Structures
1.
Amino acid sequence: MKKQKTSEIIIHCSFKFIVLLCSSFIVLFSSFAFSLPQEMCIYYGQATDQFGWPYMNGADVILKSGTNEIVRHTITGSISPGMNFALYVSLDDGFSATPYSDKALREGDPIEIIVRDARGEQSIMQTNIPPVGAAGDVILVNVTASTDTDGDGLSDAWEQEILNDSTNPAIATIEDIKPGDDYDGDGASNWQEFMSGNFAFLDYDYFFIEKVTSLDTRFKFEMLSVPGKAYSVASRTNLISGSWIKCPFSATENGVASVGLIEGDGDWLSFYVDKPVGTKYFSLKVQ
């Protein structure tokens, strides 16, 4: 009987020792917990200079958290039409107090995007840059390397060109230049000209189809492009109402027509669209 009791006591004590050992291991593991990387969050878009022209080279787009540079993209041409930068942000899972890397951020962290070009480090006009997204998020952000003091969507540098040209006493400061006005009277608003990469103080410089040619089975539209700007074709059957719908086109006379974008190079661009059955209106779009 004593041996049996002794055995029971020994077994009981051994069980307590195992439980104590496991508890100690859990405490020890928790004290040495570490964070792990997650799938990246990506910011992408088009960076333009102070006049609304896309950078083709000679500029870096930089994403920062406070004073810490997280990632940068050196622009060497377009990645695809309408896109010249992509910023891949490393994400931390937030498991510990310290991220696994000083270049890793966490979902919800505020960030800043700046541009460095030949003028030096430039702030951007846009003030609503989204915070870091969740793992796998892809966020579109187009940025303009300039200031916009009056917050009207027109860069101060672009508006200054109008001030330099104007002899109208009613246009004395950049606040006097309104996005909806048409300074040069060419039919395009100041905002439309800025967004298309044109200048509002030149009445011959605006976005429009300069020539239309009727071919056997297609129409050919021609226009003078802005380097790095992306163009597409839209159509609708009613000029008064209805939505413009993306229209297939080809960049060559006998090419296969498809919906998409074509990038400007500063030279003439041609758009070939199939002739419709019935009435159809066409429009060129720029972004």
2.
Amino acid sequence: METKGKTKLLLIDDDPDFVEAYKRYLAGFFDVQSALDGDSGLRMISERRPEAVLLDLRMPRVSGVEVLETMQKRPDLRAIPVIVLTGQHLDEKTRRELGAMANVCQALEKSAPPAQVCTEAERAALLGELYRETPELRLAVAPGGGKHLSAA
């Protein structure tokens, strides 16, 4: 499939069936790459610099939370927008905690309709492109925390 000119999206999830299904769905809109664990995901984020990341929270070895914490600590990664897409139930307290992280722009459960995930990925990717093109905006938002888009 032609990926030239498409927005780069990285999907990090330890469920290979979920990853393949979402890659097929999102491939019409994005240049989708994937990683099946948090450690590989962090390497790919560093190497590929995607416009946005779809991230599962519960993964073996390096969890999604650890990926988020590492991204927050690294100035070169902290402004990359992340959509948390997880199989666990997200109560309001968890959504608020995730929304308080500078790079989390949305938190969704895996049961969310794929069209909603695609829409949120498009919004996050646009934000990522804006940050890349406007470094002073990225620097103004990323270091201090806060949320980009609603986390509800």
3.
Amino acid sequence: MGRDVIVIVHAFGGSPKKFWYPALCKHFDSEATVIVPYLPGGAAPVISEWLSYLQAIVQEATTQEGAKLYLVGHSLGCNAILRMLAAEDAAATLRCLRGVLCVAGWLSIDEPWLEMEPWCHPRPDLAAARRTLESLGARLTLLVSDNDRFTRDHESNRREWRCGLGARSVLCPGRAHWGGRKQPVVLSELHRLMGHEGEQGDEDAEDDAPGNADEWRGADEAEGEATHGPLVESPVN
């Protein structure tokens, strides 16, 4: 039986050692192969380079018979995953895909800077991405916050993911841009996608700020405590 494969696609300015990626790797280490590639381009990421790199990573990681692939994106990483799903050969490249978790996902951001303009305009082809998901029988979950300064109109953002992509949408108050090192909701939602309904993240873990608060243009600021629980909305068929 093939091993589960989790590929984490990091945010702009991210790396395998930043944000909540190390905690997720440690959590799933004994039950899955977890890969966090350091994507090319640094502060000037190029769409074609990211997609080529990710496609090669996925193909190499899913050669084992029966492998099940789960993609986890963070911010820009979510945009990259949608573009992978919309690619002409996506169904073949992602043939092992079973689930996608997008954390702080967006289709465009409120005030894109120069390096982000190509990622916002044109936006990913949602219809093509949704066709790939449906053809593979893969589920998509979106995690967003109500105080993310890159997508202030979080309700419109959620609606587009639900209506355009058939995503299950989870709104978690006070998570900002999901930059903290401990994100129990990410763990529990990934377990859910993998069919481990009873598994939960470390709900008692404290959320702390990454080492350099100036990185990601302030996106990884320390996040306040949530005042109430997540709000879940089902996909729109």
